[in-house]
Amino acid sequence: MSENPLDRPTTDHLDPQVFVDYLEKTRWFGGKGRPFEVTAVHRIGQVPGCVDAGPAVVDHLVELTYGDAEGGTETYQVPLAFYVEAESRLDHAFVGWWEEPDRGWVHAYDALHDREAMACWLRSFVAAADDAVSGPTGLTFHRLPGHELDPDVTASLFSGEQSNSSVKFGEDSIMKLFRKVTPGANPDVTVHRALTGAGSTDVAALYGWMSWTDEQGEEYHLAMLQQFLRTATDGWDLALTSVRDLFAEGDLHAHEVGGDFAGESERLGLTLRVVHELLREHFPAERRGPEATRALAGAMRARLDAALEVVPELAQHADALRAAYDRVAALDGVDVQQVHGDLHLGQTLRTAKGWKIVDFEGEPAKPLHERVEPDSPWRDVAGMLRSFDYAPRVVEKQSVDLAEDDAEAAAQLAYRAEEWAHRNRNHFLTAYADGEPSDEAKVLLAAYVADKAVYETVYETRNRPGWVSIPLEAVARIGAA
Ligand SMILES: Nc1ncnc2c1ncn2[C@@H]1O[C@H](COP(=O)(O)OP(=O)(O)O)[C@@H](O)[C@H]1O
Ligand SMILES: [Mg+2]
């Protein structure tokens, strides 16, 4: 692995404005539509596995500052592949170029789209088999024992790209590159590491990760390599398919339809229970007293107050919601532990060997120090229950659009949507709680469900106004209960 001469030019040559244009084009950039400026571009290191014949791959952290009232700064990770000749196959991933005195134009591309660049990345993980391998400028590749990586497989960008970018290496492993980064251990890495170490089969095994340490000695987790689950189907997609099966069978009940999901919901509940138990064993867990339950209720009340500004329709249910939060404040304590933090059906995968839970990064919008705080496991359960409510209602919306003007058909769909939601929520919850949850658990769960539905009303009002009735109806049901 020689040093590629292209590593020498620095991005001082690359106009920071090119990152503005590129970020706006990507799926994963969280600040789209907001005014921002790129305030710094840090070239943090070359990927050590590069070869002379290929590109130089250099990782960058791009710091940006928002110019709106909310303001704030964020840091995004953008690995670049440098080529002397233009690579037309990578046109869609072109970031910028500059002229080198002796060499002509150097072209920079988003490295995640380039299989040559990703081959360097894979070689770096392969080389780290026995010991952590560091690049000349500080990127460090770590591996866990127990899995041989095949260095010769082809890399391809995973199409499900959302808040991060994932690259698949053959059918063997998948690397998730964290886009928005902050100093500190990423719970996606630490949780997968602990669960893999414990021999868990409920998550994709962790194979390795990449870190970098800045001048102040702060460590960043920048990427994670794990088992690629070949036979996986997304839990959300499976749930939608099951609902469509039910809707297609005009006269049958959910339990009579071929695509009944209740068995899956039950197995998913068991899976989450086992994962929570393992997290309780491997991370700090404790019982917190009444000051913690009051603080939790206070945070929920504050979120409701903020939501009322955005969604005035919530006002008629505000008293009922506050009553649910008051019941939390009156509890004498709450058990907290490491949780998933952002659990919904889209974070679950059904494989030939059962359900797997993915993406332990927590809620991306929250700062890292909040995401690693121990929390009540009922928050995760509530996330799943809301997801079981969303799935049939999303299909219902699509179907009602088709059967417009037919009030009877619409009422029938709504009835059946509730039937599906009720059945699957119950099967999931009974399996998770191994029977009836305790009174304390019921109070916490009801409040977390309400809190989540309130959050959803804000999200939908801002992003998908056509869907806001889904969480609003859930809030109304809480009010009626
Ligand atoms: N180990 C894996 N094997 C196969 N597919 C996976 C694996 N991990 C994640 N995925 C798929 O990639 C998608 C995104 O992964 P996720 O970890 O949720 O990333 P993000 O942080 O971008 O949401 C998931 O919804 C899932 O469909
Ligand atoms: Mg995800």
Notable characteristics:
481 residues; alpha+beta; seven-stranded antiparallel β-sheet; binds adenosine-5'-diphosphate; 12 helices; binds magnesium ion; Aminoglycoside 3'-phosphotransferase, Chain: A, domain 2; six-stranded antiparallel β-sheet; globular
Short description:
By secondary structure, this protein is α+β, with helices and mostly antiparallel strands. It is 40% helix and 20% strand.
Written overview of the protein:
The model has no long low-confidence stretch (mean pLDDT 91). The protein has a 7-stranded antiparallel sheet. Strands 1, 2, 3, 4, 5 and 6 form a 6-stranded antiparallel sheet that branches. With 481 residues, the protein is an alpha+beta fold. A hairpin with a 6-residue loop joins strand 2 and strand 3. It has helices spanning 17-25, 115-127, 187-197, 235-248, 262-282, 290-310, 318-329, 368-371, 378-402, 407-433, 439-463, 469-480; strands at 36-46, 56-66, 73-77, 80-83, 94-100, 104-110, 133-134, 139-143, 155-157, 165-169, 173-177, 206-213, 219-227, 233-234, 286-288, 334-336, 348-351, 354-357. It is built from 12 helices and 18 strands. The protein folds into 2 domains: 5-227, no CATH class; 233-480, Aminoglycoside phosphotransferase (APH), C-terminal lobe (Aminoglycoside 3'-phosphotransferase, Chain: A, domain 2). It binds adenosine-5'-diphosphate and magnesium ion (MG). Residues 162, 347, 359 line the site of magnesium ion. Magnesium ion binds next to loops.
Portion of residues within helices: 40-55%
| Bound ligands, each once | adenosine-5'-diphosphate, magnesium ion
Unreliable runs, pLDDT <50, ≥5 residues?
Answer: none
The ordered string of helix (H) and strand (E) elements is: HEEEEEEHEEEEEHEEEHHEHHEEEHHHHH
Mean of all residue-level pLDDT scores:
91
